[in-house]
Amino acid sequence: MATTQTISSEYKGALAGEIFVQAFKKADTIGKRCITVLPNVIGSAMLPKLSYSADFSANSCGFDPSGSVSYTEKEVATKKFKVQHELCKDEFHQTFAAQALNLFGADNEIPATIQEAILGAIIDNLGAKLDSQIWNGDNSTDQMNGLLPQFLADATVVDVVGTTVTKSNVVAELDKVYNAIPAEIEDDADLVIAVSKNVAKAYKQAQADMGTNTTVGNKELDYIGVRIESIGGLPTNTMVAYRVKNLGFATNLESDLNEVRVSDDTERQDGNIRTTVRFTAGAGYSFGSEVVYYKPA
């Protein structure tokens, strides 16, 4: 009688959190440190909004307070999501057979077990989907409240009318964004201009044409000293300038509500492996007036 092998792995709490950390880092926005991660949030995160102003006054005896301090909090609500997949085991067999025969070098990232392969697939998929939702989620039942829709609804966000970005106009369009950055934040160390993939590509080509950079190798991007990062989740022809500390991604990495499960129930006799992922996430920001949003008209 043949031996029956059943794979059934379940990760919760901190163990699931370790997997989510790997997945979240696959998202450009998080992996490139373009957002502040709030890691242990239950329900909602509260982003602080502190404003302070005061002038000098002539010295005298006594206590004569002046100026103003305003402290408020902005809520970033999280939602609980699930991702479920069903994968055919046959798609993995050739890879695992070659691995068993040592036909791959040690540097190749070929998983030794089906479980490792499935977890890797979960991590890659979750990271890509998360990056898109952070920026574009429409706040429907199965989507986050994305940052771009929030910016559109906020009259305090600095809007810049954009166009189709090419290598011939990308410098001029970046200059529009740079000029719109509020003076109060333009010297902050964590100021960044997040750009869509096509904008980053056009800027690299423009630099090569100008002789600023050669066509050999990948170069770190900046515009007059302001860091530029290419973000896969941003729509074409989009740029956003902001302080990293102003934007927040809230999740609960160590919550028992989080779950990663891989199940191969041979009694189904369908040759498939099923996966379930459950986690919480939300995105938001503190000051709209410190965000510059460039988009086509």
The sequence of SSEs as H and E is EHHEEEEHHHEHEHEEEEEEE
Distance between the termini: 68 Å
Q: What is the CATH class?
A: Alpha Beta
| Mean pLDDT over the residues | 81
Uncertain stretches of 5 or more adjacent residues: 1-7, 105-110
Number of contiguous helices: 7
Strand count: 14
State the share of residues found in helices, binned by percent: 25-40%
The CATH topology name reads phage-related protein like fold
SS strand fraction: 25-35%
Describe the structure.
- The protein is α+β, with helices and mostly antiparallel strands and 297 residues long.
- It has one domain (7-48, 71-296): phage-related protein like fold, CATH 3.90.1690.
- It is built from seven helices and 14 strands.
- Strands 1, 2, 5, 11, 12 and 13 form a six-stranded mixed β-sheet that branches.
- Helix 1 (13-26) packs across helix 4.
- The radius of gyration is 24 Å and the shape is globular.
- It starts with 6 loop residues before the first strand and ends with a strand.
- The model is unreliable at 1-7 and 105-110 (pLDDT under 50).
Helix/strand layout:
Layout (H helix, E strand, L loop, with lengths): L6 E6 H14 L1 H4 L4 E3 L5 E10 L14 E10 L1 E10 L1 H11 L13 H23 L10 H7 L4 E5 L7 H11 L10 E5 L1 H14 L10 E3 L2 E5 L8 E5 L3 E4 L8 E6 L7 E14 L6 E5 L1
Parallel strand pairs: 2-11, 6-14, 7-9
Antiparallel strand pairs: 1-12, 3-4, 5-13, 7-10, 8-9, 10-14, 11-13, 12-13
Note the main attributes of this structure:
single chain, 297 residues, alpha+beta, phage-related protein like fold, six-stranded mixed β-sheet, 14 strands, disordered N terminus
